[in-house]
Specification:
33% strand, alpha+beta, homodimer, 5 helices
Chain lengths: 179, 179
């Protein structure tokens, strides 16, 4: 199953802002619809964005235990704010070996450990799309209550200042709201 | 770019055998054509098989140095024999964390270390397809000269006896030859 994020006039989520954090921007959108489809989506330079919820690439067992103990699922009624953050990384990232990528991801950047303190306020689902031929490597979808948006912003400030982010070549920050 | 293996009457590679090592068999084929395509292939229960040459998931830096020093590329004129081995693994494999999968893959099964001694006689290219919605998780393509087929068989005997193979739920061994 693939998840497709489409720009449209009638989607469940209203776009409140689209910011190109780095790299080429994404076309404007009024609303975003989120759909699950069976067929691999064709690559597109802009909308729709598509990815696949896959197995974890870096998480180790003790980290997973902490994540599972703390994290919330998507779709909580109070989580009326969302962020969709498509990211592409440099070719140099993908040419590294697993141990090198893991070292930067966690030992140097504390991607998992640093994110844990924002759970369960911020719920998260990662979609992989590099192997689908899409222009981004990942799409991360976050959901939170309006009163936790400042915490979510702090999470992003931390990640964007980390050594891992030296490999980010394109990042779009799309904020959304639902009634 | 995606790589597609199609059963056809005019492909470059003649099929000499198709053996279902475990799980559901694959329909017979006379020849196989290998093509590179831009669009994500639609999943099919049999032929064609399709995957993507992606980044390495388990190899660490010292291992990569050994592989790069020893391995041969595809397309050597003397490598007139090939094997295409589609594999699917149990859901339990994919639900493990990265450290758990790596431990079984290398510490317990010596997947990389055990394969090194067959280089450069056996050339190899892995294609990932689980995230494309295909029925297999990987397709591995091997090329070797006829006089190295017995060594290749020994490589497979070792892998199939390893702890990693307890997670293999479907495996087809397709042997091919070209003029």
């Amino acid at each position: 199953m693939f998840t497709v994020f489409s720009a449209c006039d009638a989607g469940a989520w209203r776009v409140t802002s689209i910011t190109a954090v780095c790299g080429e921007p994404l076309p404007a959108a009024r609303r975003v619809a989120v759909d699950r489809v069976e067929a691999p989506p064709q690559p597109s330079p802009g909308w729709p964005l598509a990815g696949v919820a896959s197995h974890a690439r870096y998480v180790e067992r003790p980290e997973r235990a902490q994540l599972v103990a703390r994290q919330a699922g998507l779709g909580r009624p109070e989580a009326t704010r969302a962020a969709l953050i498509p990211i592409a990384k440099l070719r140099a990232w993908w040419e590294m070996t697993q141990d090198e990528r893991r070292r930067i991801f966690e030992a140097e950047s504390r991607h998992i450990a640093g994110s844990l303190k924002y759970l369960p306020a911020v719920a998260r689902q990662l979609y992989h799309c590099r192997d689908l031929g899409q222009p981004f490597d990942f799409l991360t979808w976050f959901e939170f209550a309006p009163e936790h948006e400042a915490e979510f912003d702090a999470l992003l400030v931390g990640l964007r200042a980390s050594p891992e982010w030296r490999f980010v070549t394109r990042e779009i920050d799309i904020r959304l709201s639902r009634a």
